[in-house]
Amino acid sequence: AYDLVQGPLVRWSEARDKATPEPPTAVFLHGILGCRKNWASFARRLAKEFPAWQFLLVDLRCHGDSSLMPGSHTVSSSALDVLKLLGKLRLTPRILVGHSFGGKVVLSMIDQAAKPLARPVQAWILDATPGEIRAGGGGEDHPAELIEALRRLPAQVPSRRVVLNSLTDFGFSEEIAKWMTTNLKPARDSSDLFWTFDLNGISDMYRSYEDTNLWNLVDNVPEGVHLNFLRAERSLHRWAHEDIQRIDDAEASASNEGAGVDLHVLEDSGHWVHADNPDGLFRTLTPSFNTIQ
């Protein structure tokens, strides 16, 4: 499932004829336990600033309106889902943005693309590293603990307040608890609310997120690809010194024309960068839209 947020100058549609030029497109991917709506207000802001662009917001498998998808639930399969969607829509994105799990999906998309993506393409990997994931300890700091807490809740609940109270009782912050209630929808046959995600599938996805290693792509950046890693200043995920050093080394060795690697730091932000410091994130990303026409 996806939403397409378009700037006011965009005239493209899925039913377009071949004479209608494709506008520059950016893809935005959420993290574990998120959904495409996480990016909605940010995309609308970008569309206002860059009226000739369009922004594809995707529900990854097991999340939101993409909860019922067959096959294995991994970083790789999630990336292939998005590549197939782009093929179906006949879109060639110029910018890829992924938060956390979605950041690894962006890397896997570049790694798996059957034919080269648009050149140049800017990829933004927000608060995720290419290899081992070192989540912080305790409560809200560790998504695996949040997944296990959600398993303790019933499949249907009478109200969002029940979820808020339960998760805060389990030790999670009110902000995290409120965010989780965005994954609830009214049931058709009762007044209860039900979860929109596939929690078992998400658990598999998180294990894949921890285990998937895409350092080889970073060490050998394809021509025309620019990888931008963004580390949140107060990240819940520990960035090891060796991770930062390896990205710095990749930056120095990315010598192909148009290829590159950069590491950015988003100040005054925790892991949820688009919620904690949307203004800072906007300022960080906008140069990419200015340099690609």
TrEMBL record:
<keyword id="KW-0378">Hydrolase</keyword>
<dbReference type="GO" id="GO:0016787">
    <property type="term" value="F:hydrolase activity"/>
</dbReference>
<dbReference type="InterPro" id="IPR029058">
    <property type="entry name" value="AB_hydrolase_fold"/>
</dbReference>
<dbReference type="Pfam" id="PF12697">
    <property type="entry name" value="Abhydrolase_6"/>
</dbReference>
<feature type="domain" description="AB hydrolase-1">
    <location>
        <begin position="27"/>
        <end position="282"/>
    </location>
</feature>
<comment type="similarity">
    <text>Belongs to the peptidase S33 family.</text>
</comment>
<dbReference type="InterPro" id="IPR051601">
    <property type="entry name" value="Serine_prot/Carboxylest_S33"/>
</dbReference>
<protein>
    <recommendedName>
        <fullName>AB hydrolase-1 domain-containing protein</fullName>
    </recommendedName>
</protein>
<dbReference type="InterPro" id="IPR000073">
    <property type="entry name" value="AB_hydrolase_1"/>
</dbReference>
